[in-house]
Every structure is written in C-alpha cells, then in structure tokens.
Amino acid sequence: MCGIIAYKGKENATSIVINGLKYLEYRGYDSWGIVYLNNQKARLLKKVGKIGEFQGQNNLSNSCVAIGQTRWATHGKVSVVNAHPHFSCDKNIFVVHNGIVENYEVLKAELIKKGHHFVSQTDTEVIPHLIEEYRKNNSFVVACEKTFHRLKGLFAVVVLDKKTGEIIGTRKGSPLVMGIGDKGFFLASDVPAFLNKTNKVIFLDDGDMVHIIDDETYKIKNLSSKKILKKKIDTIKWSKEEAEKGKYPHFMIKEIKEIPEAIKKATWQDNKKLQIVVNLIKKSPRLFFVACGTAGHACLAGQYLFSSVGKPTGFSVASEFKNFFPTLDKKTLLIAVSQSGETIDTIEAVKKAKEKGLKVVSLVNVMGSTLTRISDYVLMLNAGPEKCVLATKSYLSQLSLILLILFSTLGQYKKGDKELKKISYQIDQLLENKSFIAKIKTLARKLSSVRHIYVIGRSYNYPTTLETALKIKEGCYIHTEAFAGGELKHGVIALIEKGTPCIIHLSKGDEADNTLINAMELKSRGAYIIGVGHKRQKDFDFFIEVPEVEEIFSLLVNIVPIHLLSYYIALEKGIDPDKPRNLAKSVTVK
Ligand code: AGP
User: Which of 73, 100, 182, 234 is the most buried if burial means most Cβ atoms within 10 Å?
Assistant: First the structure.
C-alpha cells in the first residue's frame, strides 16, 4: 500500500524524506516521488521502480521542508506522470496521498469546467487542484479544510504549500502518524519511517487535521468540530535497531530468528487487561474470530482451540464476515487479530460488529494503529516491528497469545505461560542448530524448481497446512495447496503424479495415525512425501524433525521450518524475500 512521509524542520528534509521512503518500501509500491523547497523553488523528482536503485540522492540539494510518497497503483498505470507528488496548475500546491478518492471523477469534471488542466490519470490529482480553487478566496488552511470536506473515500493526505512552506495533513480511514523531533516535525503512514529520528509520536484520529506552521509550531484541529485538539504524545518502545536489518541480509530471516523472543513477549501481558478479556470470554455465550491472511489462520486455530473446550466459536475471513454477520447477536464476543492493525477488511468487520453492539477484543502488533483505536479491548502482540511482507514472528505471537488466553480461561495461566516459555526455548535451539538449517537448505534446493506442492494435515495441523501453503505461495511464487487430510480421497488425490512433492504435518494426538495413512496413500501414488513432525517416519522421502510437544503446541513448532523453507527457496529462485511481487505488508484499501 502507498506510503507517505513529510518533514519540516532544521534538519535536511530532502534526505529525511528519501530515507523515510526507503523505510516505507515494505508497504509495497511501484513508483515513488519527492518534492522539496530550496531557495523558494519547488524541486520535484518522480521515478518508476525501486527507490533502493536510486543513486542520485547526493545530487539533491538540502531543504527544510519536503514531502514524498511510495505509490501502489490503483487509479492510472505505473508511470512517472502518475507517481506522486501531484500539483496544482500554478505549481504552488503539492500533494501526496494514500487511499482512494471515490468521487474524483465528479470533482475532476467540475474543476476542468473551471479551467483546471490535469496531467495524470490518478484520483489524487483532484486534491491539489481543488485546494488551488478554494485558495483563490481563502487561506491555505481554509482551502485545505474545504477540500478535505469534499473528498469521499478512505485516505490520508499531506499537502505542501510552496508559498508559505507550511504542511497540512489529514486522515480518514488510512494511517497517518505525527513524529515530534528535536528540530522539527514528521508526518508518515507508519512510525518506522522516522523511528531513526524520533520515537515521540502523536497518533492522529480520523478527521484530525494537523498544520505544521514552522520548525517549532503545529496545530491539530478536528475537521468537523473545528476544535483545536491537545493530542497525547506517545513514546514508541521499539528501538531503531529493531526496525533495521542489522547484521541480517533480509528482514525475513531476522524476524524468523526473533520468533523465540516473540513467543516470550506475547506472554508479557498487563494482567488486568488479560483478566478483563478472560472474563469477557467466560461471560460470552459465543466467540467469533475475524482476520485476513496469516492472521486468519491464527484465528482458525483459535476456533479449534476454544471449540475443543466446548466454547461455541466461529471464524470468518474478514472479507466474508458479512455473510455470517446475521448469525451474530450482541452477546457474541468478536475477537479481531491483525499484525498491522490497518487491514481494511478487518477494520470494517469490527466497525460493522460494533454498530450492532458487539464487544470487540483485538490482538494487534502495531501500537496506535486504527484497530487499537476502534476496539473495546486491545491486547498487544509485542512482536516488535515486522517489516518483511511475509508474516512470520507475528504469526507465532498471535498463536501464543491466543493459547495464553485459552489457558487463562481454563484457570491454568501459569501452566500456559510455562509451556510457552519452554517452547520458545526449544524453537531457539532449533534455529541455532546448524545441521537443521543445512537440511532445510537442501530441501529448498530440491523444491525451488517444482511447479506444484500440496500440504496435508489434520486437526490442529490444518491451520498449519493453510499457513504453509500461504508462505510458499507468497514467498516463492509456487502454486501450493493445503488440504485437510480427510479430504484427500474426496478428490484432491487425483492431482498426485510421480514425484509430486507433498508436505505432511504430523503431531501427537488422535489424528496421528490417520495422517500417516494419508501419507502412505500419497506415496503409493508416486508422491515425494516430506514429513514435519517430532518422530522420523521411515517411509518418508524427506523428514524435518521438530521438538516433541503436546498436539496443540504443534501449531507453533511445525510452522517454523516452513518459514525457513520459504526463505531459502526464495533465495534459490532469486526472489527478494522481504518484498514479494504484487504484495504489501498491510492491505489498507479494498
Ligand atoms: C502474510 O504473510 C501476509 N502478509 C498477509 O496475508 C497478512 O497476514 C494479511 O494481510 C493480514 O495482515 P494483518 O495481520 O496486518 O492484518
């Protein structure tokens, strides 16, 4: 999704914005741009492609105010002219934007009638022209206010006025945070964009408008009440090192290595808040989990876990939530899960549930994100910044927190906490085990040229099979399909040919034997069977041994080798594991 960054202050705004754009790369993009003021001139630079490839940074002159954006094309093709910033006819107003202006065609037609000339195919370009139009009889601030009131859709916008050098920003549904620096102010889609400069942030709410007047002065007002707001300045606990790759070649391998810590930190919960959630769960006749992608697989595991203790529990991916909504009454407790806290489908599901009076508990990793501000109760995942598009450590923290809540609900908090810390240690041993890593690399070489992979698992391993397939699809571009073991003979076994690679997730528990039978059925039809489990099985072609744990904890241990496998297959195929094609870290538009 697009990423926006702006700076006004005594430091060099040009390099701050260029570096900020590099920090925002993980959001996914196809072009980028910056405008900065130097000697009252606006210097505009727009490029298609990766900002990482841009070498001309040192030729850019210094400035004290600049705005920039990484673009994920929605309206208009990937091109320099469609890249942001966009500008007014008089080139006094420059705009960067994340989101969609749904009524842009109406506004564009109106502005063309008034003589405005458009150069791009984007929805965004109506914003600088509309501000220019209102600016004819109003101040910069009022022109922006009037414009923002006319925009329909979900967006975050930052505007630079060349005449005054002032910046104005606002948000409605898309993320925008303000950074309070020692020598100036930042606006960005995400904290990591300026975390190397300050960890003092103001989380803006929908309808807030921030006006950065000079290096020391800013004003925040609410667009509807027009009231000036005194907003709380929060301190982000994440260090800038955490947000950087450090000694690792990629964020993915760094974040996989951080899994043991992430499991431990997921248990670092405020006991009072945890107890409130536990009491809500006990009191609620029904639970309903909702999320997208990897977080959705953690929710499915949550449905399995709470159903196993007799709690009526539903789950739906957020984009399909509306189909189950009629079955939910306000006594149902909605549990939403999200790493970013900005996934639009999950946010909309929560808003819908709240309209009906349901209580909402959210498990979120990013502090101050939209989901944390619209939910009734929030438990933080504490996994630290996750920059790789492929969710790895955040998935383990989501599962660990759901397990801790389950054990707490059963009055076994201490046991749950102890088990999770033990597994964190066991996984740490695994990740430090050189022969284990070498083995995964061998398998990665074998699988890097295949076109199809099938994944089978039963019971708690079914969510793990789905997550396995997702990781290999999004990280390695290999068609990978997951099946519940019991579905094999109902059709999918027809796909198996000689050498077809099949990953089988094994664990203790009632289904262990049935899963082994499935494996042999596949083998007898020529499949190349790869086992993941605690006990090596002799008839398997390849076996990945993981620590021996209780069945429910196989949710945690069985997925870690798959994270490593996806990483090493991606390297074998020359794919950038951190920024797979066509994907963004958080999906903020529909
Ligand atoms: C996972 O690797 C993907 N990046 C994606 O499926 C992700 O899990 C999904 O978009 C949900 O994101 P969230 O947890 O930030 O809401």
Answer: 100
